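Backbone shape codes:
===
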Amino acid sequence: MNKKHSIAAILLAASATFAFDTWIGAEGTVQVETGLGNATETYGYWFSYADDNDGGLSKVDWNGLQGSESSAEALDNVIAACGGVCGTAILNKGSLTYPPFVGIGFNVVGETSAADKTAVPGDASAWGGLCVTYTSEAPMALELGLGDKVDATIGFANPAASLPKATAGTKKVLTWADFKQPSWYNGATKMDGPTASSQLVAVKFKIQAAAGSYVFNICSVGPSDGTCPADCGTPDPHSIKSVRGASSVKAVLSGRTLGFTGVKSDATAEVFNLHGQVVAKGDASTAMNLASLDAGVYMVRVSGKSVNFSNKIVLK
């Protein structure tokens, strides 16, 4: 098959108008259904990036939840544990001459082919913009990724919209016109939000701030139709979700005492808040006293040689 023709066909397919189903982390889905995905099925999976190419030492701490049997980079367990993409941005300037950063994002169309990992652009104009629900201890930039070549052409001054610091779940709805290049850019090639949306490669959440640690949770993202929830949370706090298939382990909550049944070997139990932070940890064979925790929804994870189980609990 002629490679030029095959790429052109992918671009044509990606430019068609499809529905973008709002991704809600609390539902446990790991892939964002952008409506623009191509046949490679590589669209909508969350990835992270940082400033290491320029001498920075920043990274995202996923609280030990990153990775799965299929991929060391997978964020399936992260999403299951926090009802979103949550972690701690650890910013370290290293030898950078500008503030350090990390970012989290997803491709809207996917890779060109199994052999060519280049991300394909698509026309997302019909989305009208983006809605997001999030928490973050530092401001974030919601950035429109256009692929390495185009990004370089505009001096990496990609159109972006500001997301203010938010310690509680916050919803923001943005039109494509709200995305603008940063004020410091004085290059010849200009790019506004509507133009960028017609050749969109990735949606990115970028945290760039002074050195330090900042907790974040991206709870929802979708088109600018108002379908993102007003707050972070879980639709059914009593639902049980196994991270790696069925498990005989069960979490038993009696008041503020948490115990487990079905643990057949050494295993560790951890309790996470909705920011993905570990707030209690112990041996799964011993009851855990959660009296010191605030009322609310938590995720419990039991992990060991032969078990990997998670369960949402509600403390009253």
